[in-house]
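Support case: adenosine monophosphate complex. Customer-provided input:
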Amino acid sequence: MSITFEDFKLNKQILNAVSDAGYTLPTPIQEKAIMPILSGQDIMGIAQTGTGKTAAFVLPILMKLKFAQGNDARALIIAPTRELAMQIEENVKTFAKYTDLRTVVLFGGLGPKTQINELKKGVDIIIATPGRFLDLYLEGHINTQFIKFMVMDEADKMMDMGFIGSIHRILEVVPRKRQNLLFSATMSELVHKISGDFLKHPTIIEVAAQATPADTVSQALYKVPNLKTKLNLLQHLLKDTEDFTRLIIFCKTKTVADNIFHFLERRYGNEQVRVIHANKGQNTRINSINAFKEGQIRILVATDVASRGLDVSNVSHVINFDVPIIIEDYVHRIGRTGRALQTGDAITFCSPSEEYYVDKIEKLIRQTIPQFNMPEDVFVDDTPYEERQNIAREIDLQKRRDDPEFKGAFHEKKAKNTKGVKTTKTEPKAKARNNKPGAARRKKSVKFDAVHKKDRKKK
Ligand code: AMP
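Agent response - structure generated as follows:
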């Protein structure tokens, strides 16, 4: 018999809200974490986004706080980005809706006035990014002496973003006697260090091996010789409006993201597509994310700023238009689809100079990403001279990075090898893999198979 939410003995208000949210059964991290948190233990949870980790800490905290009390926060949740902070706030509001518990979210990028006014009204739970929390604390807007619960979410991201100093300062200003919960997708050395400073005899809960993509995501890789062909492939996939209902396209730079956005906007009109990246104002980003969440738009083009904390259910596909160079981002990007108990597809386009990163990603996730032949209808463009040169130069750099002795083979003859798909070095390997029917596929998704079967049939 599987554990149900009733087994946690949560109060009626919370159970009703859980049921309104459509959660029928707890996810594995919820199964493992809720009871120990309720019993007062410190927790170190190794879990990616998409596993249901937010509810795993929010539900027991709400249960312990019960109802509004005094003016000052009793729970503090620290998150690395404003997107994640907003996401957590949304979860808290969803589950606290039948209680009178008050939540305030604090993050930078907006003037602090509204946030200060919210704090003045009285608060039970603060969700904040580290910098803004400290600013408002130092200005005297936050009284920390009643804080009993502290959560650090996505601690690995927090360390990557250089928040260790701010975290230490926050730990100095909160009461020593408190319950601590730390969540992280991976267990790096810095996370280990911060957890030592933060947690007391923690119960360690791990729901998936380090950096393992969620089981509900099926992955696919296309080797694509150049940018033009990537665009052709993208257009081909997007034609399938039945399957590709709600998708995020990840790009490595703001420029690529803007270019893809304009390309799609010309094709589909601005009703169907939006772009989010760091140069977009905070409000524009929020509006775009909300429009996407509410299903008003079909396609969200994004850089990695959006790959964390963005929680949208029913994302049918994640397309990595570019392979992420920070390889850990691969897991975070594809975690946008196949969220809790749903399935999703993650498709990666890989140019010859990106194979280097795919190799590293495959080592990280300890899986081979199943590779597919280019669908028949996709026109494979020749690689223009300049792009060929860039690809060859990039490959040289990669070789030199791995082997400082490497002299560099960058010259015209080598560059020719990257022209067109037939001469792409990787092609024989691609074919060899696909000649074993289904050999490369590990995880199945009916939807995804359907798309690719169509492609195969056409041959
Ligand atoms: P998280 O890992 O906390 O970002 O959650 C990922 C997604 O899973 C969110 O959309 C949650 O609303 C959803 N979710 C969390 N727990 C459950 C559950 N027990 N049943 C169904 N969906 C859930």
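The radius of gyration is 24 Å.

Case will auto-close in a few days if no follow-up is received.
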